[in-house]
Amino acid sequence: MLSTAQHSTHLMQVEHIAELRERVQAWRAAGERIAFVPTMGNLHAGHLSLVRAGRTQADRVVASIFVNPLQFGANEDLDAYPRTLDADRRQLSETGCDLLFLPSVREVYPRGQDTQTRVEVPGISDILCGASRPGHFVGVATVVCKLLNMVQPDVALFGEKDFQQLLVIRRLVEDLAMPVEIIGVPIARESDGLAMSSRNGYLTPEERALAPALYQALKATDEALRAGEPIARAERAGLDALDAAGLRPDYLSVRRTEDLDPAGSEDRALVILAAAYLGRTRLIDNRRVALE
Ligand code: AMP
User: Which residues are beta-alanine-binding (predicted)?
Assistant: First the structure.
Protein backbone atom coordinates (compact mmCIF):
# COMPACT_ATOMS: atom_id res chain seq x y z
CA MET A 1 0.00 0.00 0.00
CA LEU A 2 2.73 2.38 1.08
CA SER A 3 4.79 1.80 -2.03
CA THR A 4 1.91 2.50 -4.40
CA ALA A 5 0.97 5.59 -2.39
CA GLN A 6 4.56 6.80 -2.59
CA HIS A 7 4.64 6.42 -6.34
CA SER A 8 1.17 7.73 -6.98
CA THR A 9 1.14 10.65 -9.39
CA HIS A 10 -1.39 13.05 -10.70
CA LEU A 11 -2.02 11.46 -14.08
CA MET A 12 -2.55 13.99 -16.84
CA GLN A 13 -4.42 12.98 -19.96
CA VAL A 14 -4.14 14.40 -23.46
CA GLU A 15 -5.89 13.37 -26.64
CA HIS A 16 -4.23 15.54 -29.26
CA ILE A 17 -0.70 15.53 -30.62
CA ALA A 18 -0.28 19.29 -30.13
CA GLU A 19 -1.06 19.10 -26.38
CA LEU A 20 1.17 16.05 -26.04
CA ARG A 21 4.10 17.89 -27.64
CA GLU A 22 3.54 20.96 -25.51
CA ARG A 23 3.66 18.92 -22.32
CA VAL A 24 6.67 16.81 -23.29
CA GLN A 25 8.60 19.83 -24.57
CA ALA A 26 8.08 21.64 -21.26
CA TRP A 27 9.60 18.67 -19.43
CA ARG A 28 12.47 18.47 -21.85
CA ALA A 29 13.14 22.19 -21.55
CA ALA A 30 13.44 21.63 -17.79
CA GLY A 31 16.14 19.04 -18.51
CA GLU A 32 13.99 15.99 -17.82
CA ARG A 33 14.32 12.61 -19.52
CA ILE A 34 11.20 11.07 -21.00
CA ALA A 35 10.23 7.37 -21.09
CA PHE A 36 7.38 6.06 -23.23
CA VAL A 37 5.22 2.94 -22.84
CA PRO A 38 2.83 2.29 -25.72
CA THR A 39 -0.12 -0.03 -24.94
CA MET A 40 -3.53 -1.04 -26.20
CA GLY A 41 -5.04 -0.67 -22.71
CA ASN A 42 -6.79 -3.24 -20.52
CA LEU A 43 -3.71 -2.92 -18.37
CA HIS A 44 -2.30 -5.71 -16.22
CA ALA A 45 0.84 -6.23 -14.16
CA GLY A 46 2.89 -6.79 -17.35
CA HIS A 47 2.09 -3.31 -18.64
CA LEU A 48 2.73 -1.82 -15.21
CA SER A 49 6.17 -3.43 -15.07
CA LEU A 50 6.98 -1.44 -18.22
CA VAL A 51 5.87 1.77 -16.51
CA ARG A 52 8.01 0.89 -13.46
CA ALA A 53 10.99 0.16 -15.69
CA GLY A 54 10.36 3.54 -17.34
CA ARG A 55 10.53 5.25 -13.96
CA THR A 56 14.00 3.81 -13.40
CA GLN A 57 15.14 5.17 -16.78
CA ALA A 58 13.67 8.64 -16.88
CA ASP A 59 12.17 11.53 -14.92
CA ARG A 60 8.80 11.32 -16.66
CA VAL A 61 6.79 8.39 -17.99
CA VAL A 62 4.30 8.81 -20.81
CA ALA A 63 1.96 5.89 -21.59
CA SER A 64 -0.37 5.63 -24.55
CA ILE A 65 -3.54 3.64 -24.94
CA PHE A 66 -4.47 3.13 -28.56
CA VAL A 67 -6.15 0.04 -29.99
CA ASN A 68 -4.51 0.22 -33.39
CA PRO A 69 -6.90 -0.93 -36.13
CA LEU A 70 -4.02 -1.19 -38.62
CA GLN A 71 -2.50 -4.19 -36.83
CA PHE A 72 -5.69 -6.27 -36.68
CA GLY A 73 -6.64 -8.62 -39.50
CA ALA A 74 -10.15 -8.61 -40.97
CA ASN A 75 -11.27 -11.60 -38.90
CA GLU A 76 -9.49 -10.64 -35.70
CA ASP A 77 -10.74 -9.25 -32.40
CA LEU A 78 -10.55 -5.45 -32.98
CA ASP A 79 -14.17 -4.82 -31.97
CA ALA A 80 -14.09 -7.27 -29.08
CA TYR A 81 -10.74 -6.01 -27.74
CA PRO A 82 -11.31 -5.17 -24.04
CA ARG A 83 -11.56 -1.47 -23.18
CA THR A 84 -11.26 -0.66 -19.46
CA LEU A 85 -10.22 2.97 -19.39
CA ASP A 86 -11.18 3.92 -15.82
CA ALA A 87 -9.30 1.00 -14.29
CA ASP A 88 -6.36 1.66 -16.65
CA ARG A 89 -6.12 5.30 -15.56
CA ARG A 90 -6.21 4.32 -11.89
CA GLN A 91 -3.44 1.76 -12.35
CA LEU A 92 -1.26 4.16 -14.35
CA SER A 93 -1.63 6.80 -11.69
CA GLU A 94 -0.80 4.34 -8.88
CA THR A 95 2.29 3.18 -10.77
CA GLY A 96 3.69 6.65 -11.22
CA CYS A 97 2.85 7.38 -14.84
CA ASP A 98 2.80 11.13 -15.50
CA LEU A 99 0.90 11.44 -18.73
CA LEU A 100 -1.60 9.32 -20.63
CA PHE A 101 -1.82 9.91 -24.37
CA LEU A 102 -5.21 8.71 -25.52
CA PRO A 103 -5.56 9.54 -29.20
CA SER A 104 -8.61 8.76 -31.31
CA VAL A 105 -8.28 6.71 -34.50
CA ARG A 106 -8.79 9.99 -36.37
CA GLU A 107 -5.93 11.65 -34.52
CA VAL A 108 -3.56 8.84 -35.52
CA TYR A 109 -4.94 8.24 -39.03
CA PRO A 110 -6.42 11.59 -40.09
CA ARG A 111 -6.56 10.62 -43.76
CA GLY A 112 -7.87 7.15 -43.05
CA GLN A 113 -5.91 3.94 -42.86
CA ASP A 114 -5.77 3.12 -46.56
CA THR A 115 -3.74 6.18 -47.54
CA GLN A 116 -1.50 6.08 -44.47
CA THR A 117 2.27 5.83 -45.15
CA ARG A 118 3.38 2.40 -43.96
CA VAL A 119 6.55 1.20 -42.32
CA GLU A 120 7.62 -2.28 -43.30
CA VAL A 121 10.48 -4.17 -41.72
CA PRO A 122 11.10 -6.90 -44.29
CA GLY A 123 11.90 -10.51 -43.49
CA ILE A 124 11.36 -10.61 -39.77
CA SER A 125 7.78 -9.35 -40.23
CA ASP A 126 6.85 -12.28 -42.44
CA ILE A 127 7.76 -15.24 -40.23
CA LEU A 128 6.14 -16.84 -37.13
CA CYS A 129 3.30 -14.53 -36.01
CA GLY A 130 3.74 -12.54 -39.23
CA ALA A 131 3.06 -15.64 -41.31
CA SER A 132 -0.18 -16.31 -39.41
CA ARG A 133 -1.21 -12.66 -39.26
CA PRO A 134 -0.38 -11.08 -42.64
CA GLY A 135 0.07 -7.32 -42.35
CA HIS A 136 0.17 -7.40 -38.56
CA PHE A 137 3.75 -6.20 -38.16
CA VAL A 138 3.34 -3.51 -40.81
CA GLY A 139 0.50 -2.22 -38.64
CA VAL A 140 2.65 -2.46 -35.52
CA ALA A 141 5.75 -0.87 -37.10
CA THR A 142 3.68 1.94 -38.60
CA VAL A 143 1.91 2.85 -35.37
CA VAL A 144 5.02 2.54 -33.21
CA CYS A 145 6.95 4.76 -35.63
CA LYS A 146 4.15 7.33 -35.50
CA LEU A 147 3.81 7.18 -31.71
CA LEU A 148 7.57 7.56 -31.26
CA ASN A 149 7.51 10.62 -33.52
CA MET A 150 4.56 12.05 -31.63
CA VAL A 151 6.04 11.58 -28.15
CA GLN A 152 9.75 11.86 -29.04
CA PRO A 153 10.88 10.03 -25.90
CA ASP A 154 14.46 9.31 -24.87
CA VAL A 155 13.62 5.68 -24.14
CA ALA A 156 10.68 3.44 -25.03
CA LEU A 157 9.84 0.20 -23.24
CA PHE A 158 8.38 -2.94 -24.77
CA GLY A 159 7.60 -6.35 -23.29
CA GLU A 160 9.57 -9.47 -24.18
CA LYS A 161 6.20 -11.22 -24.14
CA ASP A 162 5.93 -10.01 -27.75
CA PHE A 163 9.46 -11.02 -28.60
CA GLN A 164 9.10 -10.80 -32.37
CA GLN A 165 7.46 -7.39 -32.05
CA LEU A 166 10.39 -6.19 -29.93
CA LEU A 167 12.84 -7.25 -32.66
CA VAL A 168 10.74 -5.61 -35.38
CA ILE A 169 10.79 -2.36 -33.36
CA ARG A 170 14.52 -2.54 -32.64
CA ARG A 171 15.15 -2.98 -36.36
CA LEU A 172 12.83 -0.16 -37.41
CA VAL A 173 14.45 2.26 -34.97
CA GLU A 174 17.90 1.29 -36.20
CA ASP A 175 16.99 1.38 -39.90
CA LEU A 176 15.25 4.74 -39.66
CA ALA A 177 17.94 6.17 -37.34
CA MET A 178 15.35 7.20 -34.78
CA PRO A 179 16.97 8.84 -31.73
CA VAL A 180 15.38 6.62 -29.08
CA GLU A 181 16.67 3.78 -26.92
CA ILE A 182 14.51 0.64 -26.99
CA ILE A 183 14.38 -1.37 -23.77
CA GLY A 184 12.93 -4.89 -23.51
CA VAL A 185 11.23 -5.85 -20.23
CA PRO A 186 10.91 -9.47 -19.01
CA ILE A 187 7.59 -11.33 -19.28
CA ALA A 188 5.20 -10.95 -16.32
CA ARG A 189 3.45 -14.25 -15.55
CA GLU A 190 0.55 -15.45 -13.45
CA SER A 191 1.47 -17.73 -10.55
CA ASP A 192 0.77 -20.82 -12.71
CA GLY A 193 3.16 -19.62 -15.42
CA LEU A 194 0.65 -18.23 -17.91
CA ALA A 195 2.06 -15.08 -19.51
CA MET A 196 -0.16 -12.12 -18.65
CA SER A 197 -2.16 -10.89 -21.61
CA SER A 198 -5.30 -8.89 -22.24
CA ARG A 199 -6.46 -11.81 -24.37
CA ASN A 200 -6.45 -14.15 -21.34
CA GLY A 201 -9.76 -12.49 -20.46
CA TYR A 202 -11.36 -14.22 -23.47
CA LEU A 203 -10.73 -17.66 -21.94
CA THR A 204 -13.57 -19.63 -20.35
CA PRO A 205 -12.76 -21.02 -16.86
CA GLU A 206 -12.08 -24.41 -18.45
CA GLU A 207 -9.74 -22.92 -21.04
CA ARG A 208 -8.02 -20.80 -18.41
CA ALA A 209 -7.23 -23.97 -16.47
CA LEU A 210 -5.55 -25.45 -19.58
CA ALA A 211 -3.73 -22.30 -20.65
CA PRO A 212 -0.50 -22.78 -18.60
CA ALA A 213 0.19 -25.73 -20.92
CA LEU A 214 1.67 -23.21 -23.36
CA TYR A 215 4.35 -22.26 -20.84
CA GLN A 216 4.82 -25.93 -19.91
CA ALA A 217 5.41 -26.74 -23.58
CA LEU A 218 8.15 -24.08 -23.73
CA LYS A 219 9.73 -25.60 -20.64
CA ALA A 220 9.55 -29.11 -22.14
CA THR A 221 11.33 -27.81 -25.25
CA ASP A 222 13.90 -26.03 -23.08
CA GLU A 223 14.60 -29.21 -21.10
CA ALA A 224 15.02 -31.24 -24.27
CA LEU A 225 17.49 -28.70 -25.67
CA ARG A 226 19.48 -28.66 -22.45
CA ALA A 227 19.51 -32.44 -22.45
CA GLY A 228 21.29 -32.20 -25.81
CA GLU A 229 18.37 -33.28 -28.02
CA PRO A 230 18.53 -32.10 -31.64
CA ILE A 231 16.41 -28.99 -32.27
CA ALA A 232 13.77 -30.82 -34.30
CA ARG A 233 13.29 -33.36 -31.49
CA ALA A 234 13.04 -30.60 -28.89
CA GLU A 235 10.40 -28.82 -30.98
CA ARG A 236 8.51 -32.10 -31.31
CA ALA A 237 8.50 -32.47 -27.51
CA GLY A 238 6.95 -29.02 -27.15
CA LEU A 239 4.35 -29.60 -29.86
CA ASP A 240 3.43 -32.95 -28.29
CA ALA A 241 2.95 -31.24 -24.92
CA LEU A 242 0.58 -28.72 -26.55
CA ASP A 243 -1.38 -31.46 -28.30
CA ALA A 244 -1.62 -33.53 -25.12
CA ALA A 245 -3.10 -30.56 -23.25
CA GLY A 246 -5.68 -29.91 -25.96
CA LEU A 247 -4.16 -26.69 -27.33
CA ARG A 248 -4.04 -26.29 -31.08
CA PRO A 249 -0.51 -25.20 -32.00
CA ASP A 250 -0.02 -22.50 -34.59
CA TYR A 251 3.77 -22.82 -34.31
CA LEU A 252 6.42 -23.78 -31.82
CA SER A 253 9.90 -23.02 -33.04
CA VAL A 254 13.46 -22.71 -31.77
CA ARG A 255 15.11 -19.61 -33.23
CA ARG A 256 18.24 -17.53 -32.86
CA THR A 257 17.63 -14.74 -30.35
CA GLU A 258 19.42 -12.24 -32.52
CA ASP A 259 17.35 -12.37 -35.70
CA LEU A 260 14.77 -15.18 -35.27
CA ASP A 261 16.36 -17.23 -38.04
CA PRO A 262 15.89 -20.99 -37.50
CA ALA A 263 18.45 -22.16 -34.96
CA GLY A 264 21.24 -24.51 -35.97
CA SER A 265 23.21 -26.91 -33.79
CA GLU A 266 26.02 -24.34 -33.46
CA ASP A 267 23.81 -21.59 -32.08
CA ARG A 268 23.90 -20.95 -28.33
CA ALA A 269 21.60 -17.95 -27.81
CA LEU A 270 18.17 -19.37 -28.55
CA VAL A 271 14.57 -18.42 -28.05
CA ILE A 272 11.65 -20.84 -28.16
CA LEU A 273 8.57 -19.09 -29.53
CA ALA A 274 5.08 -20.54 -29.60
CA ALA A 275 1.55 -19.57 -30.55
CA ALA A 276 -1.45 -21.79 -29.91
CA TYR A 277 -5.22 -21.61 -30.02
CA LEU A 278 -7.33 -22.43 -27.04
CA GLY A 279 -10.86 -22.42 -28.37
CA ARG A 280 -10.99 -19.20 -30.39
CA THR A 281 -8.30 -17.42 -28.42
CA ARG A 282 -4.78 -17.22 -29.81
CA LEU A 283 -2.09 -17.12 -27.13
CA ILE A 284 1.63 -16.48 -27.58
CA ASP A 285 4.61 -17.01 -25.32
CA ASN A 286 8.37 -17.47 -25.52
CA ARG A 287 11.36 -18.54 -23.47
CA ARG A 288 15.00 -17.76 -23.95
CA VAL A 289 17.59 -20.51 -23.65
CA ALA A 290 21.33 -19.92 -23.35
CA LEU A 291 23.11 -23.19 -24.08
CA GLU A 292 26.55 -23.81 -22.59
P1 AMP B 1 -0.39 -4.54 -25.58
O2 AMP B 1 -1.28 -3.64 -24.77
O3 AMP B 1 -0.77 -5.97 -25.56
O4 AMP B 1 -0.15 -3.99 -26.98
O5 AMP B 1 1.03 -4.50 -24.87
C6 AMP B 1 1.68 -3.28 -24.63
C7 AMP B 1 3.08 -3.57 -24.17
O8 AMP B 1 3.05 -4.37 -22.99
C9 AMP B 1 3.89 -4.36 -25.20
O10 AMP B 1 5.22 -3.86 -25.22
C11 AMP B 1 3.83 -5.75 -24.67
O12 AMP B 1 4.93 -6.56 -25.06
C13 AMP B 1 3.85 -5.51 -23.18
N14 AMP B 1 3.31 -6.66 -22.46
C15 AMP B 1 2.12 -7.26 -22.65
N16 AMP B 1 2.00 -8.34 -21.84
C17 AMP B 1 3.15 -8.41 -21.13
C18 AMP B 1 3.66 -9.32 -20.14
N19 AMP B 1 2.95 -10.37 -19.71
N20 AMP B 1 4.88 -9.08 -19.64
C21 AMP B 1 5.63 -8.04 -20.09
N22 AMP B 1 5.21 -7.16 -21.00
C23 AMP B 1 3.99 -7.34 -21.53
Answer: 71
